[in-house]
């Protein structure tokens, strides 16, 4: 019996992929030989060959800080602090004075940062252990978006969350319900057109059993339109530097930003990011949309 593939069903139903344009992309993901990646040659969307390995219990049953490769919350916050700080700077003006919920909040780094400037902050996190830790720190926490009261928030953020969800349309519908009229959703996801996907070494490192769909701008827009969002703005964003990419090209390994610091010149790095953005080859997509 073939494994079930909810991602493929959704993408086919929305006309984003076709049976005759889906081809194998890579024979495995980094954490499993039982899962492979597919790509639609027309749209560029990348998705896994199955989704039956990801259920809510997969996340609920994780204990301690193992998911973040850290023994404590403080260690995890340090490990991912740069992205949290960057997101705080990017979206402070949008979130200041508003009621915020961070969906897939993980260890709560963004809750810590936005608490002093937002009207209120809350988190959604299926992992029972970390949800308990954040509750003990005084944060209002929910297991799922469907557990939240309707029309209770001005801003909902999903930073590298949507690609983990087996029913992303249902997730977006639930997010829309908890936002007040005029409320904003902010989404960040990996980009299927990341220039490094031309390298097999990067595919082997990056493709993951938890990343069910890697989106394009077009597929993200379709998902948001389908679930009733308006004023949709999608831009490419580059998280990793020129030095990181040179590391992949030279050594076929991550961490080039540490090994090749001489390529961190700001003007050269900015020119490279501008080039990737113009070519729609950034590693990340950022979305804002309203209800």
Polypeptide structure, described:
The chain is built from 12 helices and 11 strands. The longest helix is centred in the N-terminal third of the chain and has 15 residues, at 81-95. The chain has one domain (6-240, 283-290): Rossmann fold (3-Layer(aba) Sandwich). It has a 7-stranded mixed sheet. Strands 1-2-3-9 form a 4-stranded antiparallel sheet. The protein is α/β, with parallel strands linked by helices and 291 residues long.
Descriptive key words:
291 residues, alpha/beta, Rossmann fold, 7-stranded mixed beta sheet, 4-stranded antiparallel beta sheet, 12 helices, 11 strands, 36% helix, 21% strand, globular
Number of strands: 11
Q: In terms of per-residue confidence, which ranges show pLDDT below 50 for 5 or more consecutive residues?
A: none
Structural class: alpha/beta
The CATH homologous superfamily corresponds to: Vaccinia Virus protein VP39
**Number of separate domains:** 1
Query: How far apart are the first and last residues' alpha carbons, in Å?
Result: 41 Å
- Mean pLDDT metric: 93
Rg over CA atoms, rounded to whole Å, is: 19 Å
**Could you describe the largest sheet, including whether it forms a barrel?**
7 strands, mixed
How much of the sequence lies in strands comes to 15-25%
The shape, in one word, is: globular
CATH A-level architecture: 3-Layer(aba) Sandwich
Q: What is the H/E order?
A: HEEEHHHEHEHEEHEHEHEHHHE
Kindly report the CATH topology.
Rossmann fold
Any idea of the CATH class?
Answer: Alpha Beta
**Major sheet: order of its strands?**
6-5-4-7-8-11-10
Report helical residue fraction.
25-40%
